Amino acid sequence: MKQQRRKRVLFVCVGNCCRSQMAEGFATYHGSDILTAESAGLAPAGIVVDQTVRSMSGKNIDISNHYSKAFRVDEANDFDLVVNMSGYELPKGIRVPVMRWEVPDPIGESDEVYAQVRDQIERLVTKLVTHLRSQATQG
Fold first, then answer.
1. How far apart are CA 119 and CA 103, in angstroms?
2. What integer is the mean pLDDT of 23-44?
3. What domains can you pick out in the chain, each with its CATH number?
4. Which CA distances in Å does 83 have to 14, 22, 34, 112, 126?
5. For residues 84 and 79, what is the distance between their CA atoms, to the nearest angstrom?
6. CB count, 10 Å around CB of 51?
7. Distance from C-alpha of 118 to C-alpha of 128, rounded to nearest angstrom
8. What is the pLDDT of residues 41-85, one digit of tens each?
């Protein structure tokens, strides 16, 4: 059987310091057989917030080596899918499919809110991974 090429998925939020970092971590953890995940921010914060790293460690996922990166349209077009959870329209010029996820930004919120957002993102990521696996078996 021919080996399927892994899909390249870019997760986008505002600061690339919380939501998209969580999504990248979960996608790598749950779906590294089917996808390669990266993340970026429309207005990168320059850091990954400690609360994000702690929240993910609660799921035994270490993202302490992640760093905040800027979203660029030319780079986004190198991906198979862009997942936008920023709550904003992405810049014009994206020629690849864009999926929109409504995920609240937990920046400045309690650890409990962080955990709720983290768990919502994990559910969305696992659903995406399951979908990509089913596509791969049909293809």
1. 11
2. 97
3. 7-133 (3.40.50.2300)
4. 12, 13, 16, 24, 13
5. 13
6. 18
7. 15
8. 999 999 999 999 999 999 999 999 999 999 999 999 999 999 999
